[in-house]
């Protein structure tokens, strides 16, 4: 649903009316990642008591760049953190698609200032660890209790009585300067939110499956190259006018863009040579990676040969382990449960929308919970959250997979047809090889406003449910229409 102001931001932090019920309601968030921290900020604005648990004993500084399209920036603006993020981010001018062999430009999408003019928000890129630090400090300043080095014992969560048992992985590090002897083994809580990523253990409460996500057969490799080194290598064209560069190759993809002081380069390729499944970052065999991209654009080969900070991650898919519902609320149980971010709707990295969807979900969930006045309202808010978010995230996930398949076509007639459409078709029509350039889909994706969505979808429990059901059905029809159009392929 697009708000009347066409998605333009107000530049003002979203505020909630004070409420005594929320002031006494304890929310526990599992995971101090980007989405968990953002949700904590929004819930604190709504007046909730918030505690975040994360199993890591310190904030990890490892990570690649991250794309923040206008829908992500709108959420960050409403949470009051966008201005600080801007000071650490880069505004790419275009999204440029390249032939993997020659490096020739196939097509481009205007980002700056085009996105700001259309949607009232910029299109940014930033180093993920920097973004996490900003959100961490903002969550801490909001009054959220952040406890690091702590895990929740899944077997010892008492939903009936609302008690969560925790265990320390090591000497607990805590934010807000809590002393060690203040960290308790048990915490009374009213709502547990799983924001612990695609490998979420909390997700099993809803899915009933103990098996984690399955490997997709793909992995990403991250490389960093300093700006001065880029100039020495004669690669000024990739940094003097900042753009998101995407090379489309058979079974592989290369994406690069400038961050502050460094060029972030990520290559997606087959993981068939990996001998075992691994979680988290791992060192890269540079020679093996170079061999995979040996026939690519000389600029790609130069970046692989001269980069540093090589790390790789496997990509996973949890669609086969999707719970029937993302929420659980039982009148007979004190503790409710919800999934958000990658714990609910992880998607591939190909169109730069994974974090944005997570931020949207956090804002929608937080804004709905910010309208509650009693416990039954919480269950009502959770149900609305699931019904709003699931159709949208499913469509973006399917479009992402479609783009991955079309961008990584093998050499041949389909790849040649794709490239011809890229070069010759202006303006883009449905089925264009970059769905982000479909004006209808782009507006639906980038103009999204979670605060507006939550406010217009909220009807207090017990009131006119018929009108709410009709609105929801109309919204689903619109979403299905957008999804069908966006998933059209002419290849």
**pLDDT < 50 stretches:** 4-8, 172-183, 465-471
Strand content: 15-25%
The share of residues in helices is 25-40%
Gyration radius, rounded: 22 Å
Give the count of helical stretches. 17
Mean pLDDT: 88
How far apart, in Å, are the first and last alpha carbons?
Answer: 30 Å
Shape: globular
The order of strands across the largest sheet is 9-8-7-2-1-10-17-16
Structural class: alpha/beta
Description:
37% of the residues lie in helices and 24% in strands. It has 17 helices and 17 strands. The chain has helices spanning 20-23, 34-45, 70-78, 82-86, 114-119, 128-142, 204-207, 227-232, 286-292, 298-306, 342-345, 354-369, 375-407, 413-424, 439-446, 450-457, 465-486; strands spanning 26-30, 49-54, 65-68, 94-99, 105-110, 124-127, 145-158, 163-174, 186-188, 191-194, 214-226, 244-249, 252-259, 262-270, 308-317, 327-328, 336-339. The strands form three sheets. Strands 9-8-7-2-1-10-17-16 form an eight-stranded mixed β-sheet. The model is unreliable at 4-8, 172-183 and 465-471 (pLDDT under 50).
Write the SSE topology:
Layout: H1 20-23, E1 26-30, H2 34-45, E2 49-54, E3 65-68, H3 70-78, H4 82-86, E4 94-99, E5 105-110, H5 114-119, E6 124-127, H6 128-142, E7 145-158, E8 163-174, E9 186-188, E10 191-194, H7 204-207, E11 214-226, H8 227-232, E12 244-249, E13 252-259, E14 262-270, H9 286-292, H10 298-306, E15 308-317, E16 327-328, E17 336-339, H11 342-345, H12 354-369, H13 375-407, H14 413-424, H15 439-446, H16 450-457, H17 465-486
Parallel strand pairs: 1-2, 1-10, 2-7, 4-12, 10-17
Antiparallel strand pairs: 3-6, 4-5, 7-8, 8-9, 11-14, 11-15, 12-13, 13-14, 16-17
Helix pairs in contact: 2-6, 2-12, 3-12, 12-13, 12-16, 13-17
């Amino acid at each position: 649903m697009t708000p009347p102001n066409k998605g333009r931001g107000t530049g003002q932090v979203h505020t909630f009316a004070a409420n005594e019920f929320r002031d006494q309601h304890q929310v526990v968030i599992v995971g101090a990642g980007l989405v968990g921290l953002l949700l904590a900020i929004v819930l604190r604005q709504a007046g909730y008591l918030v505690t975040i648990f994360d199993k890591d004993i310190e904030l990890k500084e490892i990570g690649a760049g991250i794309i923040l399209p206008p829908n992500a920036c709108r959420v960050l603006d409403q949470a009051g953190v966008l201005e600080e993020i801007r000071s650490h981010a880069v505004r790419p001018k275009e999204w440029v698609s390249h032939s993997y062999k020659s490096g020739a430009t196939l097509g481009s999408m205007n980002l700056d200032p085009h996105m700001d003019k259309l949607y009232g928000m910029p299109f940014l890129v930033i180093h993920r660890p920097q973004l996490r630090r900003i959100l961490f400090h903002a969550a801490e300043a909001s009054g959220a209790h952040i406890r690091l080095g702590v895990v929740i014992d899944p077997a010892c969560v008492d939903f009936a009585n609302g008690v969560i048992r925790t265990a320390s992985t090591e000497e607990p590090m805590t934010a807000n300067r809590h002393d060690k002897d203040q960290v308790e083994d048990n915490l009374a809580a009213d709502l547990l939110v799983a924001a612990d990523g695609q490998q979420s253990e909390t997700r099993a409460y809803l899915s009933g499956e103990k098996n984690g996500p399955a490997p997709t057969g793909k992995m990403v490799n991250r490389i960093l190259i300093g700006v001065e080194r880029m100039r020495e290598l004669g690669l000024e064209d990739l940094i003097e006018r900042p753009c998101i560069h995407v090379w489309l190759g058979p079974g592989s993809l290369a994406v690069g863009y400038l961050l502050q002081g460094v060029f972030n380069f990520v290559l997606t390729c087959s993981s068939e040579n990996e001998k075992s499944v691994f979680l988290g970052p791992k060192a890269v065999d540079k020679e093996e990676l170079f061999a995979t991209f040996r026939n690519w654009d000389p600029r790609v080969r130069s970046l692989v040969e001269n980069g540093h900070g090589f790390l790789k991650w496997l990509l996973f898919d949890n669609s086969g382990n999707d719970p029937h519902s993302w929420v659980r609320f039982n009148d007979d149980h004190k503790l409710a449960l919800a999934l958000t971010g990658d714990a609910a709707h992880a998607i591939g990295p190909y169109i730069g929308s994974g974090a944005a969807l997570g931020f949207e979900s956090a804002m929608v969930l937080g804004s709905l919970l910010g309208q509650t006045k009693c416990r039954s309202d919480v269950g009502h808010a959770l149900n609305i959250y699931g019904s709003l978010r699931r159709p949208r995230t499913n469509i973006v996930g399917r479009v992402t997979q479609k783009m991955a398949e079309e961008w990584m076509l093998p050499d041949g007639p389909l790849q040649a047809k794709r490239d011809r459409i890229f070069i010759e078709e202006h303006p883009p029509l449905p089925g264009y090889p970059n769905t982000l350039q479909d004006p209808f889909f782009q507006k639906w994706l980038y103009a999204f406003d979670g605060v507006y969505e939550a406010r217009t979808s909220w009807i207090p429990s017990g009131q006119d449910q018929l009108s709410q059901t009709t609105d929801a059905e109309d919204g689903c029809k619109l979403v299905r229409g957008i999804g069908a159009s966006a998933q059209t392929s002419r290849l």
